Task: structure prediction
Amino acid sequence: MLQSIVVPMEPHRLGPASLASVLSASPPSTSVSMPPINAGFKHQPIAPASRMPLPMSTPSPSSQSPGDSRREYGDDDMVMDGVNSDEPAKKKQKRNKPTLSCHECVERKTKCDRGRPHCLACIKRQTECRYAHVANLLEETTRSASTGRRMTKAPKKRQGADSMLRIPNLADRHTDEHGKSRGAVALSTGLLSTAPYSKTTSSNVFGIGSEHPFANYWTCGGGLPEVISVLPEKMQADILLGRYFECVDPIYPMIHRQTFYADYEHFWRMDERERKDVDAAFVAQIFVMIAMGTQFVTSSAPRERKQSAEFYASACNQALRISSYLSTASLRSIQAMVLMTYFLINDNHASDGWAFAGILIRQAYAMGLHRDPNIVTPNASPFEMQQRRKVWQAVLLQDTFMTVLFSLPPCTTHTDVSVDDLLDHGSSIASSDPTDMAYIRGNWTLANLVQETISSPRSLDLPICTTARHKSKLVADFRSVYRSFPDVFRSWDAESLTALAHTNKRVVRQTVWLTSNYFHNLMLVHASESPDVPPNVRGTLEAAHDAISAFFLMFQLLESEARVWWVINHRAFLEAVCIGNVLREAAKEPGGPEMLERDPVFVRARADIGRMIQILKSMVNDNEFAQARVEILSAYF
Result:
């Protein structure tokens, strides 16, 4: 019989001093002169180019008391039992299995998480971490296989009562006792799937942001000069752009700061006559960056901040219209549209953001951003190739992780751009911060795995894992992705990250964001069920705890920013919903109520929901949907 074994990973608590040493390798940036605004980023014209699930698996609690550290856990360590004792004893065979752990851990006989380039145990011991050549080959093979593209097969049609199946994932059932519809809490969760499109009357897609997102302040013949005229004074614009690069750019490092500021300063040196001929997409880019910077300003009242940000967003939209963004596209217009999508979502216009992202993806395809720059633009400079890759990964990341939150199909599925090609070039203008590049690669690798294995099946209400072997392999793939993250994003705890927040908030933001994203998706894998594979209850609760704890830490260290980011707020809410579903199902099992009171994992899970409710209550005045979320989570108690 197959048996699930939970193997906790011994975490490493890296102190502030050690963590600072990891970050000290970043080379200083150098300033360079840039060509005029009108010379680069030329527009490109677009060419037509009823079975019920089995009982949940509830392993006995581990003897190790739970802590704040992140662990590796899952149901991927499978063993076969039941060997017939009547058979004659066989000759013991010599072990012929390659050693996958590092040499240091093998010699010391300690647990190795097999992280690259350094395992956590070697980081803790401050020792050299070396792997056998065969181990490196197997690791690279596994990682490459996980990024392959496969088409998701549609489920076979079922007749009669069998067609009304429960949603095959604990995380998606919300408060509906029978688990047959996600629409009941769409106002709060934003997970209505495709229900509105089956109605004959008009319907708001995700139940939020029903009004048009862009107020019309513009005259028919005003053109670009009218839009430029509403730019704030340069000093104010500088402050808002600084806020953008402080709060937004660390999480979505898509715009090359050095070249942007060169063009930006050149723009302000132009006279009125020259400005009317400037690239309208660049003006749109400035306005959307100012709009997002305004969302994170703390010196003004929430209502005033919201009105100012929406005004700048309207100016961005008008500049895009003037640039004919529906028939032409450039890197600048794509960048502006990516940021506009995030702005709309933060502004409680998730439906508009989803629709706007659809246009964005079509334009990115039309520009050929999904193709390897070495093939479609062989004569481009290293910097332009690098920018094309970074912009494509921004589009792919946005699409993939929005589909996870909305349970809708991914669109950025056809590409030959490889994450391995996103390397630092020797040219000073093409180089970027090494930590930023590692962060981009980590997100990109995770998105490639999530897109096919989670987004596609969930969009059709298919099980993420159909067999125990499939689930074991998928958890192993996620572990492989996690091991590929740089040490700075893996070897931390709340204490070290709190200390780092005083010196390097950029890395703090990236660490919290990547951690939340990774463990949220791992939670979905563990919570998946099928007729042959029950959900892994303990793995689900552990992953949900690690994911929601990242949000709690961000709320503690960067509260004003955590209140603005809809994505991480909503992700944490869904994690609390998933925890509530697990607790509700566990309470139905024999001895369930007693287990909820005594098992430390379940006690901690209830505490996570309670803390999420407290945070949401503190946001009721600023967020019109916080109260609805409080009511949904309170129902689990």
Summary: The first helix runs from residue 16 to 23. The two ends are 36 Å apart (CA to CA).
